[in-house]
Amino acid sequence: MKIYTKQGDQGKTSIVGGKVNKHDIRVEVLGTLDELNCQVGLARAELAGVNGQLNEELLKIQHELFDCGSDLSSIRTNESKEYKVNAEMITWLEKRIDEWVDVTPPIKRFILPGGTKGAATLHVCRSVARRAERKISLLHEEKGDVPQSVQAYVNRLSDYFFAVARAANHLAQTNDVEYIRGTDVFTFGNSEENKKG
Q: Which EC number(s) does UniProt give (predicted)?
């Protein structure tokens, strides 16, 4: 079986509901989610053996990124059709964000992406997730058929990657590096002083 079809040679691609240009915003969104999934796979490979729980969480997220793509890949003609991404997935991300933040030292300023290779890879995931979020917002503006659950999920996902990137450095006993010309902008962390705020 050949993996190439030649159907895209004229700059078109098929989605559920018909063919669109390969530069269509919907295809841009799907491509960005695919790129993010690849980056998460790279992060999993980099962090293999470091933290089993984190690896399992990233695997779960890879499946859920496919769910996001599935929900966004078709031109909806049946508004009653159930989407795959739901409020439970978003709540799970929020819980994991809170728990990872609680195991890392408090911060007050922006930090530079980096530290260990695993943490740096997770920061790339965070950045690509933000780009996916921007493209999803544009898709919603242009087409108007984006489920709110997907928008919320991807928004929360970038926060998750920030939290676990910091946790990956902390677990490796590597300090985050604060932006030296920044000012205090954060009031969260695991210190009692910060929790009072």
A: 2.5.1.17
